[in-house]
């Protein structure tokens, strides 16, 4: 099957294009020579995004960048309309996670666009997955072997299925629904590929904790944790086990590479970057932003820095040999949030 080469002017649909990873992906797609159709809930935001892309030097003429309404991730008709005439799909969007049926909605918001893509004759479909569909960061992650794309977070699914009524009322249950839904949704996607044999190739990109500069929109949850660290807030990132951090630009690039690189077809592709420790993160922030109130270092822990390792040989090769370094990632992210680098 012929891949969608950069510069081919192939039409790529980016679902939920105003999101953090999605907006960066749309920008890179335009710069790589694709035509982009972004789905949006709000046309006013669409024109704001067009202006943001123009500032980044992208050709945002109507023949290169268009927007279509898609306000229901469970509407097959809306997806079919959005995909008509397109060559590729990148799907980072998620339904609301707070509802009681969130897990099933994540599953359906994966399968419904796959069915629509089949009808539309899409050639490549790239789904945004997540590292936590593979593991739950923390002490149970094995350190005696590499984590690979063959691993699955079945533990999260079982925890969701067996959650007590007390757990269901806790704020942490939203995160548990997210993990379980992403595991089950992605597996449903792979099963669809196996049983239905659609006319497109399928890739899942697995981001870890994503930092790096935002192109547009409200601050994402993970980027909000970085903003918190610049405002003496230890209740976000520092309450979690250290994890891998990748630059949003690398995550976007891997989505674009998955449109055409033969090695990505039928694969789960890591967008994970660097294993970090909170002491390392805080040191970088103090170096570049000495006038900001940075939290104190957390207590020493065997989990800090992140002790487990991921097999990312293919991803590093695809990126030309290296990830964007953590310091650049963090500084550029902070600058995009309005902070001034003192160096």
Detailed description of the structure:
This protein is α/β, with parallel strands linked by helices and 343 residues long. The chain has a single domain, classed as NAD(P)-binding Rossmann-like Domain (Rossmann fold), CATH 3.40.50.720. It contains 12 helices and 12 strands. It has helices at residues 20-31, 43-55, 76-83, 102-120, 154-161, 165-168, 172-196, 221-229, 248-257, 278-288, 313-318, 326-336; strands at residues 11-14, 35-40, 65-69, 88-91, 124-128, 146-147, 201-207, 209-211, 244-247, 268-271, 274-275, 309-310. It has a 7-stranded parallel β-sheet, with helices on both faces. Helix 8 links the parallel strand 8 and strand 9. Helix 1 packs across helix 9. The longest helix is centred in the middle third of the chain and has 25 residues, at 172-196. The radius of gyration is 20 Å and the shape is globular. It starts with 10 loop residues before the first strand and ends in a 7-residue tail after the last helix. The relative contact order is 0.14.
